[in-house]
Amino acid sequence: MEKLRFTITKESQSKRLDVVLSEQEGLFSRSQVQKAIKDKRVKVNQIIQKASYRVNSGDVIEIDVPDPVPLQTQPENIPIEILFEDSFIIVVNKPAGMVVHPACGNYSGTLVNALLYHCTTLSGIGGVLRPGIVHRLDKGTSGILVVAKNDPAHLNLSGQFKEHTITRRYKALVFGTTAERHGTIKTAIGRDRIHRQKMTTSPRKGREAITHWEVLEEYYNTSLLSVTLETGRTHQVRVHLASIGLPIVGDYVYGSAKRTRAVSIKQVLDVLKGIKRPLLHAGYLEFTHPSTKSPMAFEVPLPDDFAGVLRILQN
To answer: Is 138 a catalytic residue?
Structure first.
């Protein structure tokens, strides 16, 4: 059994223990937190505490992580584009349409299935369904992901995400234009009270989310944006851009369907109707190597479907 240890900072002062653990981005799912506390595998200053315990700055949290159970997720010979790999991490360019890890309705054909075929070791912190997964991209989003091959690397990368020292930059094609050339969106994001698969900027309970955006190009009733994440909440880019009236083209969950139907130029309308996924691409990722501490930066071009739409709009 491995023991993970971290110290509470001032920003987490007075929060519940279970909330603090859940906020360790890429480290624990809510169910893992609940089970760890119930099984008395969580200690604060070497004392077992309940989920309701209010943490203090300087508290030392220790979590006993059980040895991973045998993987039930099967390796699959699925080609993946590897940008970098060593004994600590693997950096990949995920195509649009690929789910990152197995979940309800998607138990095969995922990035995890492909990774298990490619390499024999991934970190066990994410459990049997999410080994090595430190952060995620939505199924329809293309772009760069870093995956941890062992638990120390996973813990280090999770800390970088939590401290917002990792740079994640996206390109998004959105409906609408704006007089402002750049801006910052800062809201809470949480589950929609009615549609539980959706996120909203006006939840009963939510977590702070910060997104910076900049206009790169403007086309017919559409704009190409560069988007930089300061936080990493579920559907953050999609929800935030929709909240300021700039829904991502092809994102029918968050409101681009009506904007598509309103397009009057037939050639453009035909192209936009054919888009089956949000035109969102995670093209740039910068972080510190968890072992060597060297700065690492990766950039990949737009995939063919995204680039093809831009060519038509430019004409």
So the answer is: yes
